[in-house]
Amino acid sequence: MSIKGKSVLITGASRGIGKRLALGFALEGARVGLLARSQAELDLAKLEIEQAGGTAMRVRADVCDLQELARAVDRMRARFDGIDILITAAGVQGPIGPFLTNTPEAWNETVQINLIGVANSCRLALPAMIEKRSGKIIMIAGGGSAYSRPNFTAYSATKTAVVRFCETLAEEVRDHNVQVNAMAPGAVYTHMTDEILQAGEERAGSKEIEDAAKVRNTGGVPPEKQTQLALFLASERSNHISGKLIHVNDDWKRLEKDNMKTESYTLRRMHKM
């Protein structure tokens, strides 16, 4: 699954899953572009990668601002001579609580970041991938994209939309040898975990609080498990896989050699092949 020397742009790379993947890809020899809104957090992520022996550059941008994002992508292309792999990890939890208690502003902001931000990133990365007939796009899905998640309507709706966007875009670019997949990273301890716990049982629900407390205590899915799946989806070994939603706990290693039914690993979520 070697990606040594490949150029990888990761949005939302300053913390959480994006930062974990950035460090993992850098340690495998990829040149990583770290994109996020917080300059301070970007500086820290870049420092951690370089201290571990990796190569990274930071590009501050808001994925909701297409012009700002375009300038950042141009900077990365100039430094790393293109983008081989795009990982869209930028995202927010959005409002927690029953839908009618959510403010329209908070709900709409979640749509802008979680969905439009992904579309903007693909809009800028895809043309060059299509031109050179090679590219990988990995969209980070999340809880609620394959099942209902009460009290998290904005997050669930946007992550579900990302998966269907992935499936549809994959069909559009299939003949250009660009693969697009969605990765469900599983429950991990991030700032979103703390947001759930701070919201309390009345707003988040007892199950969410119980699950979040468990993740805080255990750390959740190990970073290396997420990185291994992302590396597989970014490698040539997965060239035959596109338009799929693959969970970190799926038996994804057998997908390298097995043929999949059309509706396997999609929003229809048929686990059996």
Task: Provide key terms for this protein.
273 residues, alpha/beta, 7-stranded parallel sheet, 7 strands
How would you sum up this structure, described in words?
By secondary structure, the protein is of the alpha/beta class. It has helices at residues 16-27, 39-51, 66-80, 104-132, 153-173, 191-199, 201-204, 206-218, 223-234; strands spanning 7-11, 31-36, 55-60, 85-88, 135-140, 178-184, 245-247. It has a 7-stranded parallel sheet, with helices on both faces. Strand 2 (31-36), helix 2 (39-51) and strand 3 form a beta-alpha-beta unit. Helix 4 (104-132) runs parallel beside helix 5. The longest helix has 29 residues, at 104-132. The protein is globular, with a radius of gyration of 18 Å. The two termini are 23 Å apart.
Strand content: 5-15%
**How many runs of DSSP E, i.e. beta strands?**
7
Rg, rounded, reads 18 Å
- The string of secondary-structure elements, in order, is EHEHEHEHEHEHHHHE
Overall structural class, as computed from helix and strand content, comes to: alpha/beta
Helix content: 40-55%
**Shape, per Cα inertia axes:** globular
Low-confidence stretches: none
